[in-house]
Fold this protein.
Amino acid sequence: MPGRGLTGRADPDVLRAENAAAPHVPDLWKRVGAMFIPYRKHIALTVVLVLATSAASVVPPLLVQRIFDGALFPTDGAGGTAPPHLSLLTGLVSLMIGIFVASAGLSVWQTWVTSNVGNRVTGDLRVTLFDKLQRMELAFFTRTKTGVIQSRLQNDVGGVAGVLTTFVSSIVGNTATVIASLVAMIVLDWRLTLLAVVLMPALVVAQRRVGLVRQRIAAKTQESLSEMTSITQETLSVSGILLSKVYNRRGFESERYAGENRTLIRLQIQLAMSGQWFFGMVTVIMSSVPAIIYLASGLLLARGGEAGGGVITAGTIVAFTTIQARLLFPLMSLMRVALEVQTSRALFARIFEYLDLTPAISDAPDARDASDAPGPVGAIEFRDVTFRYPDASEDARATLDGISFAAKPGETHAFVGPSGAGKTTIVYLAARLHEASGGSVVFAGTDVRELTQDSVVEQVGVVTQETYLFHATIAENLRYARPDATDEDLVAACRAANIHDTIESFEHGYDTAVGERGYRLSGGEKQRIAIARVLLKDPPILLLDEATSALDTLSERVVQEALDNASRGRTTLVVAHRLSTVVDADVIHVVAAGRIVESGTHAELMALAGRYAELAAGQAR
C-alpha cells in the first residue's frame, strides 16, 4: 500500500498530502446555516440587540459635532464666537454618557445570547457527530484509527466553535456598524467619505487571497493535530505503553511524537502569521486616513470651505475622524471573520464528511422487533452465507464462502480451525455486527435484515478474548449491562460467574476501581466479570469468541466453569482455540479458508479422522 513503511503505519507526510485538500460537500454553508434554525428566536433577538448597539455606537460622534459647533464654540450670529452654551453642553454630555451606559448593557446581553446560541450549536454538532459514529458498522472502526475519530470530534469541532459562537454577532453587528458609520460620514461630508473609502475594494480582494492561503494551512494543521491525537491514543494507552516498554521503544515513540509536534508548531506559526502583513497594511491605511482627512480639510478650507459640498467646520472634522476611527475596529473584525469563515471551511467539510457517512448496516423501513419474529427466540440459521469486507479488493478471497448451519434454541455450536479462517466473523454475523454479502442469516425464523438492529442485539450476549472494562468500579462495569440492577442482582450474577468471592476479598469490594481497561485485575478476573455482566443482561443467545484462549490452565478451568453455567439453557456459538473447551458442544464446525469443512460431535469428528482429528492430535502433543 502506498505511503506505508515496514511497520504498516501510514507515512505522515503522505497522509497529510492526501488529506490536506478538504472534501467537497455540496451546499456546505447552507447546511451550516441550517444548524441555527432551532435557535431562530434567539438569533432574531441577537440581531435586534446587535442593530441597537451598532446604531447607538454612531450617535456619540454626531453628538460631538453638536457639542463642538453648538455648545463649546457657538457662533454669535455675526461670524464671531460666543461663550460656551453650558446648559446645552450639559444636556449633550449627559445624553452621550447615557448612550454609553445603554450600549454597555445591550452589549452584555448580546454577548450572553450569542454565546448561548453558539455553544449550543457547537454542542449539537458534537452530539450529532458522536451519534452518527455510534451508528456506524463495526468494520468502520476496524479500518479507522481511533485517534482520527477523536480528532474529528475534538479538534475539528473545536476548531469551528469560535466561528459558530461569534458568527452572527460579528457579521450582523460589524456590518451594521460599518453601514451606520458610512451613512453618518456621508451625512457629515460626502467628499471626505469618498476619500476615506477609496482603498476598500482593494482590501477586500487582498483579504480573499489571504483567506485561501489560510484555508490550506488550516487543513494541514488539522491533519497534523489528528496524527498527534492518534499517536497519543496509540502510545499512551495501557496496551501501547506496555508495548513500548517491553520492546524498549520509548525513544522511538518520543521522537515520533516530537517530529509530529515540530510539524504542528511550524503549521501553527504559519497559520498565525498568514495574513499579518495584510492586517498590518489595513491598520496603516486606516490609521493614516485621519491625517489625510486633516490635509484634505485644510485644502478645502483654503479654497473657501466649499467645493461641491457644505462648509467644513471644526466639529465636522472632529466628528468625522471620530467615526472613521470607530470604523477601523468593525471593519478589521469583519475581515477577520471572513478569513476565519474561509479558514474553517475545511474543518466544516471534514465534519460533514463524517456526518454524511452511510452505515453499511441499517434498519429497513419496515423492520420489526425480534420479539415479533415467528420462530423461537434462540434459533439461528446460516443459509449459504458469504461475506466480504467493504474495503476488500474484488479479486481477494471472500472471508466467508457458503456457510450453512442451523442452531436450535439451547444448543451449543462450536467453531474451530486455524487463525484467519473466519470463525469470529461467523459469530459477529449472527449478532448482525457485520452484514452478510450473500445468502441470509436467519434469526428466530426471520432474515436478520428484516429485524431492527437494536432488538437483535438485545437478544445477544458477547464475551470476547479481549475483555473491555471501563475505568470505573466493578459495580459500574456490571451495571453497564443493566443500569437498574440491584446489589442482589450483581451478587447473583457474580456468584454464577465464580467471581463473587474474589470481589469480596478486595478492600473495597464491588466499589473497587478496575483501572484503565481493567488492568488492575488479572485476565481470569476480567473474564469472569465480563461473564457476570452478560449474565446480568440475561440474553437467550450467547456468543463466545475465544474467551479462555489467553488464560493460564488454572484460570481457564475457573472461567470455563463460569462459561458452562452461563451457557446453560442458552443458544451458544463458541469460537474456540483449545478443543478441550468444546468437546461437549452439540455440534462442532471445523472452519478453513472461510468454509465449513466438517461438522459433528466430538466423537463423530474424531471417528472421521479428518481436519478435526488432526487439530486434536496437534494439541495433544
Notes: The beta strands are 380-387, 400-407, 412-416, 438-443, 446-447, 460-464, 541-545, 571-575, 587-592, 595-600.
